[in-house]
Structures
1.
Amino acid sequence: MSGRRFAILIASSRFPNEPKLNPLSLPEKDVNGLRKILRSEKHGYFDNPVVLKNVGSNKAIREIHKILNDAQKDDLVLIYYSGHGKLNSQGHLYLATKDTENHLLETTSISMEEIKRLMDTSRSNKQVIILDCCYSGAAGKVFTKGSFDDQLQVVFGGSGTFLMTASTGIHKIKGLPGLCSILLILKS
C-alpha cells in the first residue's frame, strides 16, 4: 500500500458535565489495544496513532481536522471512537466527550456532520471511520450519498470512505465487562 497511515483514536469514558451519561469502563481499553495493533508490523504499520482520552469536543475536532488536513491523496486516515453516542431531536448522531451536556448536545459533542465535512475537504481518498457507540448506525445517513451502484463503485475501486458501526441507528449497545470489542474483530 502506498502512502502514509494516519489514525486518531478517541476514548470518551467520563462525562462530568452530564450526570445522565454513565461513566464507561471499556473505551480506554479499546483505544489502548487498538493503538498497539495499529503500531504492530503484523497488522498496522501506522507510525504514530494519535490517542485522545476524555478530551472536550473542540480538542477532538481540532485533532481530527489536523490529521485530515495533513493527509495526502494516497494516505489512509482512520478515525476510531469509543464512548457514548447520542441522538438529537432530529435523529442526528453526536459523539459524547468530557464536556457533553445533553441539553446542549450540538455544541458540546462531536457532530458526525462536522466529521463528514472535514473528511470531504481532505485530500485523502482512503478514509475509514469506526464507531463503537450506541446509535452509531445513524452515521450512515451522513455518509451514504448517491445510488447503490455509486457506493459499490467506491467499495470496489479501493478508495473512498468506509464506515463500520457497532449498532444500528436506533439501538443501544452493551459492552461486556473486561472485553475489548474492537480487538475481537482485529485479532480474529
Note: Residues 176-188 have pLDDT under 50 and may be disordered.
2.
Amino acid sequence: GVDISDFEYNFPKNYELLRIVSVFSWELPVVGVYGGKNEWNYYFGNYNSSKNFAIYRNHSDWYSSTNPCDFVMGKEIFSKKPYVPTEIVLGRDGRFSVFVYGEEGFVLSCENSEELTDPVKIDIGYAGKKNYDSSVHKFFFDCPVNL
C-alpha cells in the first residue's frame, strides 16, 4: 500500500480521511483502502465481468466476486474510454465512495460500522495484471481534484 501522507493533491474535507482523483486507462481498475487496523477495509473493482463494478468490504470478497456492498451492472466506461477520472473518498465514519466521471459514469458507496483513523493506506492497480506493461496499462493517482 501507499501512505497517503506523501500525496500532494489529497484534499479531504474535515469529515474525511481521503479524497483523491485517479485516472485509469484499462478496463479492470482495482482500489484497496484501509485505515484503523491492518486489514483492507474496502476494495473497488470488477464484479464478475469487465462491465460490472462493485465495492467489497474485504479482499477475499473482491477476489471471489462475492458479497458486494454496492454494485453497478453494464458499464463499459473503462473499456471504451482511454482515460477515466475516478474520485475516491473515505470518510472518518467508515463510508467509502467511488465517483466514476464521464457519460457512462456512476457512483458507488458503502458504509462500514468501524470509525477510521489515520494512517490510511491505498493500493491502486489493475486486476489480473501483476506483470502488466506499464507503458500500455498506466494509471495516475494523486491527480489534482479539479481534473
Note: The chain has one domain: 2-141.
